[in-house]
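Q&A log
Question type: sequence-to-structure
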Amino acid sequence: MRQADPEGGNEMRARHVLPAVLLPLFLAGCASAPPGEVNDPYEAANRRVHAFNKGFDSNVVKPLTSHGGDDESNGESAMLLVTNVGGNLALPGKVVNGLLQGRPARAAQNAGRFIVNTTLGLGGLHDPAGQEFGLNEVDTDFGETLHVWGVPEGAYVELPLLGPSTQRDAVGKVVDLVIDPVYNIAGEPEVYYAFGLRVGSKAGERARFGDTVDSVLYDSADSYAQTRLLYLQHRRYELGMEGEAYDPYEDPYAD
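Response status: OK
Response body:
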């Protein structure tokens, strides 16, 4: 006879108790927009934040993540290593979210990837988990956990430095920091190193997709509208909220 799993019971209780606590926070004006539509009641404020983020990218992030000259390959290699380590440090939080979503297979895959890359991959510098064992990352976050629990998307918001989001995903970003095992276990100054590597990993993603980001921010007639459209399309497609394929190069003004 199969015995009850006390950890599974705790997980199921958490999945029911936490939504009961969080859902009231979303009942006032946090309804999802119909598929294909945009809920942006804070557009004026969002555009001011977008202008700030765009200026920060132009003056700080873009110059730091752009490479040129004889050191280009070395710079890209160093950025790739930082991206790898930062991505590896993000895996424990993804394991927690997989469990909270009731998806143990995804959690186990991320846990296996973290163990292999932390040991054989020298702390995540290399990726033997994906290259040799087929343990690819299953991306997730607490914003998706809230979606699984039935919390609505809410209004579109653009966050300072963090960029495009929704009310639900903004709460998710905060909770991700609270539940991340790395930040809860590591002491000082290790926790600051971990945070720096995570930030460096995001900078690495900016460098990797630099041409696309530049096209959206600097070549669009309305970079705010383009950013909002692409983020919502991509996020909804990730969560299975819309059946249409996501095209990052779609022209928002085609209609």
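Response note: The longest helix spans residues 72-100.
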